[in-house]
Amino acid sequence: MKKFITILIPFFCITILYSQNTAKTPTKATKVAKQAKKTANDSKEVKDTVNEISEPKDSKETTNSEPSKEIKDVKESINTANESKESKSEPVKDSKEVNADNLKSTDEIKEKNTSGGIEIRGERNPSSVGYYNDVKGTSIYAGKKNEVIDINKTNANLALNNSRQVYAKVPGIQVWENDGSGIQTGIASRGLNPNRMWEFNVRQNGYDIASDAFGYPEAYYTPPLEAVDKIEIIRGAGALQYGPQFGGMVNYVTKKAHPTKPFQVETRQTGGSYNLFNSYNSVGGTSGRMSYFVFYHNRSADGWRNNGNYKIQTGFVNLSYKLTDKIKIGLEYTRSQYESRQPGGLTDGQFQYDPILSNFRTTENVNQGLQNEINPRQSNRARNWFSAPWNLPVVTLDYDIAEKTKLTVKAFGLVGERNSVGRLGSINQQDLARTGNTAFNIDNDFGARQIDRDWYRNHGIEARMIHTYQLFGMENTSSFGVRRFIGNTDRIRNSNGTRGINYSLSETNRVGDFTMRDASLKFQTRNHAVFYEHLLKVNEKFSISPGVRYEWIESSVSGHLSTNKTNSGTSGRILLDDNRTTPILMAIPESVSNKVVLGGLGTQYKVTSGTNIYANYTQAYRPVLYQDIYAPSTTLDEVDTKLKNSTGYNADTGYRGVIGNFFTFDAGAFQLKYNNRVGTIASNRRSDLNSVIASNTGLQSQNLRTNTGDSLSRGVEMFMEYDPITHFFENTQWGTVSGFVSHARIDAKYVRSDVPIAISNPAFRDLVGQQNGTLFLPDNGNFKDLGIVGNRVENAPDRVTRLGLTYTFKKIFSMTLQNSQTSHVYTDANNSFSPLQGNTLNQNGSLTSLDTNSQVGKLPGYKVSDISFVWNINEIFSIRGGVNNLENRVYATRRAGGYPGPGILPADGRSFYLGFGAVF
User: Of residues 425 and 375, which shows the higher confidence score?
Assistant: First the structure.
């Protein structure tokens, strides 16, 4: 906090001095407006775009209602230049805009003047969330449910990537809030799993940033949102153009170079609770045919929970050069590095008092002092760490082959790591030091920690082409793309890590140059794909968008895993220097190939110039992930080696649009079918699953990851934002007030299951001819207390609602009060109400341990409020601030089985932030 204050004092003094002299400084609006007018008239590419002019209420631009003469001229000139019929389908962004280069860091023209202002953009939308209509860049969006978040118009805690606030206006987005640092984002919708966004195809500027889309699709890197211009979200229908994921696609679009200035600087410095210090700094500009944009980001804090400190650094470089008027090449490089201490999970008793659990606490366990304190900020793990160095090199080519034919090529790579070290035992077991030591050494006298490491070496190339042509007097568009991807992952696990408390990946069980590891595996994923989609306009209002995608996915593995299965003798074991032996199991060096064809159909009907009805049906597919089959098991989970691929579809329909500059809406219904869903079963309640686990590992495990069955998600999604003052009065000297509601009802349930119900009773012994007397019955939904058919899908709330109220004063000051409400969730397919259901009780009714491991059980619903504001002091300086979790609610959104748990992972309590920014 001292560092933050030291920086802010001179910064604040400069701000005051500048604001006192700003009246004497001539405005630049007249020059800029004239230049925009000249460029709009001279550029031949303008006729390929349509520019709708609006005056959004929550930008930083103007204070008066009447535009200047120069700006009126800009409106008239650009409207005249864009009267061509074919231009109506594509917005300004990502095309050759007014001056043949990018038009601003946000890809838009935003001219400013103290006497008036305009905003020229493709989608005329007063809200911070809108949608793409028909065609954008090389992609077709007609008939697809999509949302675009304008980060520059969003009141949110961008310094901490607060997903609850950023995605507030996207209906149905569920957020896992266990990572208050904002380093890793976990979101999902429609009953899918939010874990590190692995149900989405996650991209940055159109290229992959996750580990491996078909082998281990977890996003360990999230760009700092202060460097992001917009977030594009395409729901399940995005499978055809971007991949077969059930969730669809999320694309972070970073800021770009200023199109007219050779040098522009932006800086934001933010401080807050728990020693938060966040620094974002960027430079960019355009000179001739060359443009550049570079940012550096640094954030550190102690964290809300004990043992929750972290530090992260991110750097980014974007260089582009126009070889000709039609060809532009680019180079991007992203480097992210962080270290994050993981405080671990909590038992239900530690998180919040539970009278049911308290009845099963024994005197012995209470004497251990494990659960005398009820405090969600506590931590039983001080030695757990996580890091993920991430390098993303990218080369791009943009080629305007003809007036209505465009080609983009992106060659991308990933050189990254996923590293964790810590004590992964059940959370109801303390991380104790070794006994018998006369002098305790904090760096050497704890138990050995487990090390898990991945190395990623991926590369791929994706080419996309779009062509627009006339057919029967109507403008039609074809989009075509090919993709080639190769992912290589090396994975190790070693239970003989260091015994200290600090971050270290050193392995201690070396025999000369040889290290015996619990697992040493090599994976490779090869993927070839091709898609074709066509936008067929039947008339000016109605269009049809059929499409097809072909995927070829091949996964291979080699290496070994150790097991705990005991065999006679030492066959298959390696003798270590301390005479211990470790049995090993070679991974079968096999290659699994999958070929799949996916189809889809979208339709759209334009009711008015600003509203349309859309509908879409798209098939989805997800192959078995190698991390589910071959990853060493987490703390208490075992994996079914006979997992099956997942198939299904997404379907949605709705009505959306913008009315005037005061009302934005999108309301619709959806259905998502997910066959062979992978989930967790409390296996010690089913003897058939116990026998499977015992035969494979020799252990009786509590949880089994397997194909739990088929699920069906149905529901409605609705978003509305309304500004009544602008609607009725246009302008007022007191400012405006707008409100929004984002609501989703989700009915996500299991409709089929392959897992049989096992009933153990001695009376069945003669009936089934088995000594244990177990009767196996199909799970057809008739035994609700025993099977999962009819149960809710794990981690799927049936209601997600967010409400917000924003006050805006003359485009200078804006404040938003937001309330988020999410209903309860079950964390396993059995819908266990209490963690006690997943544990075995003694004959006297007491638990053998103090508490359960808290991996399964119901999580209650919650409500949480936030407040955030932006004060634009002038055209250069601004202040941002707010309070997260205003009422200091205690709640949790997730139970974990391994990292970063196991156990309940609480969300952060109340915190504040305050930041100063400048653009010059």
Answer: 375
How high is the mean pLDDT of the chain?
Answer: 79
Residue among 471, 209, 155, 486 nearest 334 (CA): 209
As a whole number of angstroms, the longest Cα–Cα distance in the chain is: 99
Residues 394 and 461 sit within 8 Å (Cβ to Cβ): no
Average pLDDT over residues 844-857: 58
Q: Distances in Å between the alpha carbon of 171 and those of 45, 145, 148, 668? A: 36, 11, 12, 10
With vertex at residue 532, the alpha carbon angle to CA 531 and CA 535, rounded to the nearest 5 degrees, is 145
In 171-275, where does DSSP find H-type helix? 239-242
* Whether the model pTM is above 0.90: no
Q: Which is higher by pLDDT, 546 or 625?
A: 546
* Phi/psi of residue 858, nearest 5 degrees: -70, 140
Mean pLDDT of 203-215: 94
Q: How far apart are CA 249 and CA 201, in angstroms?
A: 5
- Quick check: 392 pLDDT over 90? yes
Q: Which residues of 827-849 are buried (b: 16+ CB within 10 A; e: fewer)?
A: bbbbbbeebbbbbeeeeeeebeb
Contact indicator for 337, 390 with CB cutoff of 8 Å:
yes
Cα distance between residue 904 and residue 376, in whole Å: 9
C-beta separation of 911 from 895 below 8 A: no
Q: What is the DSSP letter of 165?
A: H
The DSSP code for 339 is E
Q: Are strands 310-322 and 862-872 parallel, antiparallel or unpaired?
A: unpaired
Element (H, E) at 8: helix 2-21
Residue 265 near residue 877 (C-beta atoms within 8 A): no
Phi-psi region of 882 (alpha: psi -120 to 50; beta: other; left: phi over 0): left
Rg of the chain, C-alpha, whole Å: 29
Phi, psi of 634 (to 5 degrees): -75, -170
